[in-house]
Design goal:
Length: 304
């Protein structure tokens, strides 16, 4: 039986919990209006399991879609994966955690170094332990936490009874994308390696390596995949949406590659590119030209 979500009160906050329903009831989109939601429904906290939650708030910009974080409650404290895009928004995340549990935030994983996930990090409590990939720390420059632990490939540790694995699946949306895997619960937070129904955004990307990272994610023992943008889905739907996202990325790369092999100049390729169904995905208008440019850079050997 597939699952959808209903609102229930938990510790004085409206939390979206899981209930049985048909997958046909899930509208496959990152657009909250098409999803049947209102702006006033956000920010919102979603209960994934008894100890795992996501927090969704709107990304700044003309098109409405969510920036999504994960937090994990353990006997030894709370681990948060990614923040929001400014101090006020991240303070909202911190407050949401406090409404669900009295346990303190002790660990923060910087999964994406982009500002929409890190610019509010000053709102996390003083003394939290940060984890970051070396490439992300370099990209963040002076905004990177000075005492962060670097994770180049993997970091495995226990928080209370919860096994936590911070993993680098390869360069993808950025040069240092980290994911958080909870093997006991078979949950994988992919941050910006997975943009649920959002057109592949490639400003800092490594297109073909991104495909490889998604393939690795699909081969892991996971029941629920959580994106860094777009809605939190139930387990079966999350698997379908990860496959759909990989198909979208592959199609975007294939179309830009076709034009490159045909000798079409970049500026003309940007206007000629036909991305079919993916042209209706959130951010397609702004991100499609960037994607073509980035694939051309990769094919020309310009990515380092």
């Amino acid at each position: 039986m597939l699952r959808t979500r209903i609102w229930i009160p938990v510790v004085g906050v409206a939390v979206l919990a899981v209930a049985a329903a048909s997958a046909q009831s899930v509208v496959r989109t990152a657009d909250p209006v098409k999803r049947g939601l209102r702006e006033t429904d956000f920010p919102r906290t979603i209960k994934v399991t008894d100890t795992v939650y996501t927090y969704e708030d709107f990304h700044a910009g003309d098109e409405k879609f969510t920036t999504t974080n994960m937090f994990v409650i353990t006997d030894a404290g709370v681990l948060v994966a990614d923040g929001q895009g400014n101090p006020a928004a991240t303070k909202g995340l911190v407050d949401a955690v406090a409404r669900v549990t009295a346990r303190p935030i002790t660990h923060v994983v910087i999964c994406s170094d982009h500002g929409d996930h890190t610019a509010g990090n000053t709102s996390f409590p003083a003394g939290v332990k940060y984890f970051v990939h070396p490439a992300s720390k370099a990209a963040m420059g002076k905004n990177a936490p000075a005492e962060a632990e670097l994770v180049s490939e993997a970091k495995v540790f226990k928080m209370g009874s919860e096994d936590v694995q911070i993993v680098f699946l390869g360069r993808a949306h950025t040069g240092g994308d980290l994911s958080v895997y909870l093997p006991r619960q078979k949950i994988l937070f992919l941050s910006e390696t997975f943009l649920n129904r959002v057109f592949p955004a490639m400003r800092s990307a490594y297109p073909s390596e991104w495909l490889g990272a998604l393939t690795k994610a699909q081969r892991m023992d996971v029941n629920i995949y959580i994106p860094g943008h777009g809605f939190t889905e139930s387990g079966p739907v999350s698997k379908e949406e990860l496959r759909a996202y990989r198909a979208a990325l592959q199609a975007v790369i294939a179309e830009a590659t076709r034009l490159h092999k045909a000798g079409v100049p970049l500026d003309e390729a940007i206007t000629q590119a036909n991305f079919g169904e993916y042209s209706s995905w959130t951010l397609a208008k702004s991100q499609a030209p960037i994607a073509v440019r980035k694939v051309y850079e990769e094919l020309n050997g310009q990515l380092k």
